[in-house]
Amino acid sequence: MRNKNTLFYRGKTSVELTFSSSEISSDGSLIMLEKLEPDHRLIHYYSKFLLDTRDSRFITYSRRYQLKQRVYMIMLGYQDANDVNHLQNDPLFKDVLQGNLASQPTISRFENSLDKQAVFKFCYAWLYKYVLSLSGRKRIVIDVDSTDDPTHGSQQLSMFNGYYGQFMYNELFFHDGDTELDYSSCTPPEETVILINGM
To answer: Which residue ranges does the record assign to the Transposase DDE domain (predicted)?
Structure first.
C-alpha cells in the first residue's frame, strides 16, 4: 500500500511525498530549498556573476546548474565535492535538479574556477542585496563575534593566540543584530587577520 501526499506543483506536475521503499532519499529538506529558490532567486542572481570561459561545444552543465547543485549539497551538509559519488543516484537530487548530477571532477573544476575576483564579485553582489534590504530601517545593529578554530601543523595564516594558548584561526563574524544575517564572508581574509592581531 502506498500513501501519497501532494506537496506542491511544479508547473502542471505534482510533487508528491510517497512512502515506498523503491526509491528513497534521506534529504527531504531539499524540497524546501527547491521551493525557496523561485521566490528569492538567489542562485539565479549569483549565477549572473559567474564568468564562463569554457568552450560551449563541450558544456553539459551550465555554471548556474553547477552552482545550484553545489549550494544544495553544502546546505544539506555535503561539504566535499566527493560526496557527488554518493548522491549521483539520489532520486530527489535528480528530480530537484531536473537532471543528472554533475560529476565530482566537474564540481571540483567549477570550484577551482572561482578565483579571488569571482569571490569578491559574489561579496559585492551580496552586500548590494543587503543594502537594498535596509530601506525603511531606522537603525542597523552590527554584532561582532569571534570564534576559535584550532589549527594543526603549518597552516597558512595560522597564528598563536595568547588568550586561548594555541595556534588557531580566530575568525570574526559580523551579524545584522535585527535580522541575524551574516555578512562576515564579505571580509577579506587579510583584513580579518589584521583586525584580530590589532585587538
So the answer is: 12-179
